[in-house]
C-alpha cells in the first residue's frame, strides 16, 4: 500500500509538471527582442491598414473610377486581415498591455469602430512605435 501512495505522488507531480509546461508554452516567450519585434510588426501593419483605409476614403471623396476604388478597397481589406492576424499573435503571446484586449480592439477597429482604433493606436504609442501609426479616425 505504501508503494502505491508513492507512485500516486510521483504521477501527481508529473501531471503537475506537464500542466505547468503547457501553460508556459502558451505564454510569451520571455524574449524581449522577439516581443518588441512582434509589437513593431503589429504597429507597422496597423499603420498600413490606416493608410489603406484613408486611401479608400479619399478615393470615394474624389470620385475616382470604380476600378481604382475597388483596387484600394481590396488593398484595405487585405491590410485589415494582416493587422488582425498580427494582433492575434500579440494576444496569444501575452503581449497585451494594461488590461488591453488588442485582438478585440483590432477586429473592431477594422470593422469601423474609431474608439477601438484609438485604443489600438494607444497600444502602439505605449509600445514605443507611435511613429508607425496615425491618429484614429
Write the layout of secondary structure elements.
Elements: H1 2-25, H2 32-61, H3 66-92, H4 102-110, H5 114-127
Number of domains: 2
pLDDT averaged over residues? 80
The helix-strand sequence is: HHHHH
Largest sheet: none
Class of secondary structure makeup: mainly alpha
Helix count, DSSP H or I runs of 4 or more residues: 5
Protein name: Lipoprotein
Signal peptide: 1-35
Keywords: Signal
Organism: Streptomyces nigrescens
Account of the 3D structure:
- The protein is mainly α and about 140 residues long.
- It folds into two domains: about 1-30; about 30-130.
- Helix content is about 75%, strand content about 0%.
- Helix 2 packs antiparallel against helix 3 (about 65-90), helix 3 packs antiparallel against helix 4 and helix 4 (about 100-110) packs across helix 5 (about 115-125).
- The longest helix has 30 residues, at about 30-60.
- The termini are far apart.
Amino acid at each position: 500500500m505504501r508503494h502505491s501512495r508513492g507512485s500516486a505522488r510521483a504521477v501527481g507531480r508529473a501531471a503537475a509538471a506537464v500542466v505547468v509546461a503547457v501553460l508556459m508554452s502558451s505564454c510569451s516567450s520571455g524574449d524581449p527582442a522577439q516581443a518588441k519585434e512582434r509589437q513593431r510588426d503589429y504597429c507597422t501593419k496597423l499603420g498600413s491598414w490606416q493608410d489603406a483605409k484613408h486611401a479608400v476614403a479619399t478615393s470615394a471623396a474624389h470620385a475616382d473610377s470604380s476600378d481604382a476604388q475597388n483596387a484600394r478597397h481590396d488593398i484595405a481589406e487585405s491590410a485589415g486581415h494582416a493587422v488582425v492576424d498580427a494582433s492575434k499573435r500579440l494576444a496569444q503571446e501575452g503581449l497585451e498591455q494594461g488590461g488591453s484586449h488588442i485582438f478585440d480592439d483590432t477586429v473592431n477597429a477594422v470593422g469601423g469602430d474609431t474608439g477601438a482604433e484609438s485604443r489600438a493606436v494607444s497600444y502602439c504609442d505605449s509600445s514605443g512605435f507611435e511613429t508607425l501609426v496615425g491618429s484614429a479616425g
